[in-house]
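tool_call: predict_structure(chain=1)
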Amino acid sequence: MRRRNKKMRILVIIICIIVVAALVLTYVMMFPLNAYSSEVYTPPPDENYGTSGDYDDTTLTFPGDEEEEEVLEPMLMITGGPVRLDVGQTYSIPFIMTDFPPGTLAVWESRNPDVAVVSEGVVYAVAPGDVEIAVRAGEKRASVLVTVNELQANKIIIIVPDDITQTGPSSYEVAVGDVINFGRDIEPKGAIVEKMTWVLGNDKVASLSQNGEFVAEAIGSTQVTLTSGPLVAAITVNIVESGVPLDTIWDYLKYGVIIIIIVVVIIILLVFLYQRSKKEKARQRAIAAKRRKELAERKAREEAAAQDKKREAREAREAREARPAPQTGERETMRVSGAAVGAGLTPTEDKKTEIERPLTLDDLE
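tool_result:
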């Protein structure tokens, strides 16, 4: 019985684990990714621009006279003059590094990373401005001035949050009451742009602030436009009734049916196990009741037998006590009758013999 109960507990634990796993899987499947992506594509920086066509990036070394005993002074020098770049361009700064101890490394730094950054001698222009790019090796230092030109933006972009349903290349769908924060960006990165302004096409269905906060207020359609001088970016926003979309409802129904089926199967299994356990307990109770009945019947029989023995003994005792005591003549008769029986005669014949026997002196006495 204990082994059966242990198996049932293990089975119930396994079922609970399966149910939890099914619920977690269902929850994960309820949130599919949007069919469209609103990521802004940023082209990689063009590495082909630069103003250093006359210089080489290699380290120049000069052969020394091995026979000379004098120690040469280390030299670190950036070749060429100031560098001018456009935003997004890269440039490899040529330099000379000679007569340094073996293992000496050149360390580059930018005095203003907001304008340009440098890594292993390669400069990347970030934003318009001037910046000093320096290199250090041991106690030597060299630097060059890098100027990043001002660029005019050639494109502005409206950034739409990823959780908004996209219905077309520049069309989106929201529900009444939704609040969306639109972002903005320009191309190329770091370019100069005039003031950007948000414009709402239909103010009867929504409101739009100059920081890009869009509030859907009624069912309808409107255009959201971002302007900066001659540059324009626009999207269409369709506002629908608040609620769960039909496709989402259908997904919920499918997952709900799966969950219901799992729960029903588990309930049926638990009911089956409960009924089985109940029948087993009833069977055990019936066996115990049968045993108790058999013990009671055996005890009753033993008690009845003991009562019968007591009654028989009592009746025998009462019979002995109720039997009358024999008289003297009867005793003689009984004695004579007993002698006659011993002689093989009946009591009647004994009496006849006794009468016919002649009297003697002993009889008279």
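agent: Residues 358 and 364 are 11 Å apart (CA to CA). Proceeding to next step.
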